[in-house]
């Protein structure tokens, strides 16, 4: 899902956009491409670490970003709890293009 759609969801839900949230979540896209970048921040543990106040709009925007990406791309509702679970799900859908050992 592209940032334009994520920001539109922000406007509908919160009345304003949170582009810095979406930039942070997808920051690893240029390094990993496609689905690989999801393992870094498309899960609850990363979002909780970045936005510890779970009542903040930034935290909620990040959660919506991840859920919307999973629904848009896999037609599944997913909110992985951490990197390991994210890797398991991506592996299940055969979306990983390189091994975990190739991350350097």
Could you please describe the fold and organization of this structure?
By secondary structure, the protein is mainly α. The protein has one domain. 60% of the residues lie in helices and 0% in strands. It contains seven helices and no strands. The chain has helices at 3-14, 19-25, 29-32, 38-41, 44-50, 57-74, 83-92. Helix 1 crosses helix 6. It is globular. The two termini are 26 Å apart.
Report the strand count.
0
Distance between the termini: 26 Å
Question: In which range does the helix fraction lie?
Answer: 55-70%
Mean pLDDT: 84
- Roughly how many Å is the radius of gyration? 13 Å
Mind describing the biggest β-sheet? none
The number of domains:
1
Shape: globular
What order do the helices and strands follow?
HHHHHHH
Concise summary:
The protein has helices at residues 3-14, 19-25, 29-32, 38-41, 44-50, 57-74, 83-92. The protein is mainly α and 104 residues long.
Which features characterize this protein?
mainly alpha, globular, disordered C terminus
Describe the secondary-structure layout.
Blueprint: H1 3-14, H2 19-25, H3 29-32, H4 38-41, H5 44-50, H6 57-74, H7 83-92
